[in-house]
């Protein structure tokens, strides 16, 4: 009886719950994208008519282009720092027998456990006490600290599934640690590495609090520019820019997911992931 009830719940209730959840998550995005095509000079839903002039205005506006370029450069630099720091950290922490590995992992995860506003306020107060200005690199390092945990956690999950015999065999044949990392470990977790980098890039590109508090108008990123536009002059241009952000994030997510689904990974037992 219990088994039949669970089977009925799985076949009848679960699809409804998933559909409602997806609709709840997608509805704001649908409204946002739809309002970007309205002909009225203010946000309206349903859109009044159809026009692309808000997209044309945004793409031709040098201030929007400069903000997008700033976000792109800062996100790329912060992800580069996160990859250089996070990949070796994940490889070390995923090893068996490493002392204090759980404590070190928890320490790396602290930035995603603490509200970003608290982290940024601490940085801002520290910079003020030291009388240090915050150039672009200050924002890059702050974003790298916030995004590194996602990359480390993604890589650790993949590394923990690798067969330790691969590394042991390479060591017995005289391979150096660096060569093992470059030629064995990283190629086997390349898909997870790309997923972690993609997630870190999206988070850094969309981050508002860090550049807003640390640099403000001195380094106008795209989220800061959107925030300023919403605060002082709300028009469909904001919806157009936000729609483009949604499109970019969706493309990155789709590329990452497609790469993960295309190539099966190898489990510790040697069988392809998802296979028998």
From TrEMBL:
By sequence similarity, the record places it as follows: Belongs to the binding-protein-dependent transport system permease family.
Q: Which residues form the ABC transmembrane type-1 domain?
A: 68-256
Which GO BP annotation is one of this protein's?
Answer: transmembrane transport
Name the source organism. Phytohabitans suffuscus
Highest taxon listed in the record's lineage: Bacteria
Q: Which UniProt keywords apply?
A: Cell inner membrane, Cell membrane, Membrane, Transmembrane, Transmembrane helix, Transport
For the keyword Transmembrane, the answer is: yes
- Transmembrane ranges? 12-37, 72-94, 106-128, 134-152, 193-216, 236-257
Coarse class of the primary localization is: membrane
Record membrane topology: Multi-pass membrane protein
SUPFAM superfamilies from the UniProt entry: MetI-like
Where is it found, in Gene Ontology cellular component terms?
A: plasma membrane
Asked whether the UniProt record includes Cell inner membrane among its keywords, one would answer: yes
Intracellular or extracellular location(s): Cell inner membrane; Cell membrane
Alphabetical list of Pfam families matching this protein: BPD_transp_1
Protein's recorded name: ABC transporter permease
Listed InterPro entries: MetI-like, MetI-like_sf
């Amino acid at each position: 009886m219990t088994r039949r009830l669970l089977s009925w719940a799985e076949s009848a209730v679960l699809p409804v719950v998933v559909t409602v959840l997806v609709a709840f998550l997608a509805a704001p995005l649908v409204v946002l994208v739809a309002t970007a095509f309205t002909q009225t000079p203010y946000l309206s839903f349903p859109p009044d008519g159809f026009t692309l002039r808000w997209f044309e205005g945004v793409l031709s506006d040098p201030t929007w282009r400069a903000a997008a370029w700033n976000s792109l450069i800062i996100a790329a630099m912060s992800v580069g720092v996160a990859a250089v720091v996070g990949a070796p950290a994940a490889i070390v922490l995923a090893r068996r027998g490493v002392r204090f590995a759980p404590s070190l992992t928890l320490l790396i995860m602290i930035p995603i456990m603490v509200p970003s506003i608290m982290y940024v306020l601490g940085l801002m107060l520290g910079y003020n006490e030291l009388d240090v200005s915050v150039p672009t690199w200050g924002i890059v390092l702050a974003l790298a600290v916030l995004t590194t945990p996602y990359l480390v956690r993604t890589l650790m999950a993949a590394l923990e599934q690798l067969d330790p015999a691969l590394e042991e065999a390479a060591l017995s044949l005289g391979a150096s640690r660096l060569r093992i990392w470059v030629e064995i470990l990283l190629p086997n977790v390349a898909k997870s590495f790309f997923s972690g980098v993609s997630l870190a890039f999206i988070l850094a590109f969309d981050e508002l609090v860090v550049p807003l508090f640390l640099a403000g108008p001195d380094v106008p990123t795209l989220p800061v520019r959107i925030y300023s536009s919403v605060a002082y002059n709300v028009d469909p241009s904001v919806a157009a820019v936000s729609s483009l952000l949604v499109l970019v994030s969706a493309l990155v997510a789709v590329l990452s997911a497609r790469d993960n689904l295309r190539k099966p990974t190898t489990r510790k037992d040697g069988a392809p992931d998802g296979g028998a």
